Amino acid sequence: MFERNGVVGGRMATVNVSGEFFEAGASILHPKNFYAVNYTRLLNLTVNSPSDDSEGFGIWDGEKFIFKTLSVKSKLPFVNRIVSLANSLLLFVRYGYSLVRMDRFVETTVNSFLKYYESLKTRPVFESVDEMLKWAGLHNLTARTLAEELAESGLCPLLIQELVTVRTFLHKKFLSLTFSSIK
Hints:
Elements: E1 14-17, E2 20-23, H1 34-42, E3 58-60, E4 65-68, H2 77-95, H3 98-113, H4 129-136, H5 140-143, H6 146-152, H7 157-182
Antiparallel strand pairs: 1-2, 3-4
């Protein structure tokens, strides 16, 4: 890895918030990001599969976890399966069918984005960014807030609050820490 600064930054950056380290850049490269997948192959890098649900999941509000699933690492597959089922139940009790709706929202958005991979022979040349976004069906994502889009998709207010508000809080906290360190 080449980096002009003393620490890795950009998409690989981490930030310390209240003694906890968080990824401030991309945390996941989507398998449908064909450029990243091809670059990974070109560099002969190993692709890690998504981790098991038994490792746990949590939502951090900047000071504490406001929600956590169970986290168990066992060599016994049936224990991991029981923990995975318990975590699924915890998530369903908290968010209901909103997780299914969110999955549909993400899948629809990713499929719209995939239109950009079409051959130049089958897609138009765009005169503006707005034209490009409208062609792919992504313009609303730039014209409205994420909270509005998620509410229209049928997500429950709690999930929207915890996804959007917490993410926004952490982003503002990160920017605040960054700007205070620049002064």
